[in-house]
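U., I forgot to send this yesterday:
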Amino acid sequence: MAALGAGGFFTRERWMPLIVQRTAEAAPVEVESPPVEEPRVLKLSPQARKNLGLVSKPVRPQTYWKKIQIPGEIVDRPGRSDRGITSPAVGVVTQIHAFPGDTVKPGDRLFTLRLFSEYLQNTQKELFGATREIELIDEQLKRLRPLAETGGISKSKIIDLENQLRRQTAVIEAHRQDLLTRGLNPQQVASVAEGRFVATVEVVAPPPAEVAQKRAEIQPAAFQLVQGAVGELAYEVQTLAAELGQQVQAGQLLSTLSNHRSLYIEGHAFKREAPALENAARGRWDIAVEFAEDAVEHWPALEQSFQIRHLANSIDTGSRTFDFFIPLTNQSRDYQQDGQTFIVWRFRPGQRVRLHVPVEKLDNVIVLPAEAVEREGPEAYVFRQNGDLFNRIAVQVLHEDRLNIVLANDGSVKPGLYFAQNAAASLNRVLKAQAASGIRADVHVHADGTVHASH
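Result:
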């Protein structure tokens, strides 16, 4: 055994190459696998499309505006949304007819005041005295005119009496207008002239601003109405500033009425966004508005366009933003309860909004919803529907925001063909799953065993 071992050791240069060659010949040859083909087509049954809620629509080239998103909120429109009701004279609140939350129409009673104004009492007394003085002058003129015509008295006496009559008429008119501005209505002024002094005054809801502006006569402080001058306008009592039995001064706030028919959308933008907003305001470009917490299904369609009315010229020191304002016409409905009418407004001050302001125009582009495009690194894909098959197509993205993605019209997406409008991420996952299974979706097997591409 020792001799055989020594002989094999000293002759290893001869027999070792033979053993290595035989081992190499016996080892299996590794065959390089062909490259995996990138999956492009997937197949979905009608039930699967329904489970995904898949929607397909034809695409068309169009014009798209690049937009910036700016936060905002709904606010009252100063001078239109709220109306302050003030006391026409010094008095004591004896009755309150409308409380916060109540709905009132122009002319409805709000407060009853017991007059406590010495000035108002003196004015009534002077009006009554001037009225009686005119009656005396008229009686003298009727008695003396025949004597002046026959030469019994001088005509200068008649002239003096006529001048006194004109002066007293002017005094009466001044007192009448003074009482109207203090809250008395024309009927009350007429009763004062007859000697029935007014001790209380009714404060009522005001008419629309348009009606007040068209009137030629002096508008009473109590906002007395002309019959038939008011339409469907209604106010809601927002705050109550006076209490029962409280003495109030002339001009003191009694309550605040609100009518949220005309509002503002107030946007909060940074200074760097000012040029874009200025261009939108100058060009009267339409602004897209998203209303937070808006129950669209419970209200009629909002058929109005939104455009910037004006930009603020001051910056808020706390937020470092400046405001811009867009008019908003509100919607409302009412309901009855306990014999009273209450108003419900669709949009309320303080409600948050998101504004999409156009800044740049893109022509001849393809616009799809954001859910219609799937990204994988630098690649972006859309899915074209062909019956049960969906072809994945690479596209070029020009612009994207939270809602839409803009694609270049370079021929990859052909106009008129149907493309999936949503669920692109799910379609891409299904495509990879079908590719991993080894079964291609774009081929089918005939009964004779032959394999053909889909047709």
